[in-house]
Amino acid sequence: MGTYKDLEGKRVVLTGAAGGIGLATAKRFISEGAKVFILDWDEKALDKAKAENPKLSGNAHGDVSNPGDVRKAFSEVDEILGGIDVLVSNAGISSRKPFLDIEYEEWSKILKVNLDGMFLCAQESIKRMKKQKSGVVLFTASTNGMEGHPLYAAYNASKAGVILLAKTLALEFAPWLRVNAVCPGYVLTPMQKLEYTEEMLDAAKAENPLNRLATPEEVAGLFAFLASKEASYITGQAIPIDGGETSGMILKDSDE
């Protein structure tokens, strides 16, 4: 039996779920007894996730920034799950580069995946949820969407957009739909490891009040809580999970 009994049997769709936070969240919802369908663009990672998680109800290969791929994936959701109760729109990409070095094509690609992808998946989900007048939509945003971080102009702009999209949808579809944005800080994911050296990760830990990075499983736990009835009065929020990173600066020489 999982932590949240009301998640048992819920139909959950997760994007960007063949690795990192997405896969950890898929596993968490499976452990709660939910019926889980995952969507990812990485076919090899998707095959591995399927093989290692036989309790997955279904999966689709596709690009969340491609309207045709998204429509096709949700048609498969209809066939396999017969609808949707929870969307965890998690797919995202990042690039670490000085602003003046960002090519328009790169800027556009990040915005398309990180923001257009959220729009497309949310629209398909809410069309279906509206018929049953119930549902939960959860977006993966970032603390980078809450405050400025140099070298991440495109990523930051996309995640700020995700936060305002969540707030707007929460108002537009209240009271029957809840919508929230989860805002992780540093999380030890494959994407983070690609962008950061060990020295950079150590520096990030040193600047964090809890002196560490989050695990994908900790973020997955927040998604499960927000999807459950325990969070029934939480909507329209951008919720940081960052070890206190956005609280302010810590004193380097403070007493232990």
From TrEMBL:
GO molecular function: oxidoreductase activity, acting on NAD(P)H, oxygen as acceptor
Keyword field contains Metal-binding: no
PROSITE patterns linked to this entry: ADH_SHORT
A Pfam cross-reference name: adh_short_C2
InterPro entries: NAD(P)-bd_dom_sf, Sc_DH/Rdtase_CS, SDR_fam
Entry keywords, A to Z: Oxidoreductase
Keyword Transferase in record: no
Family: Belongs to the short-chain dehydrogenases/reductases (SDR) family.
Name of the protein in its database record: SDR family oxidoreductase
Organism the protein comes from: marine sediment metagenome
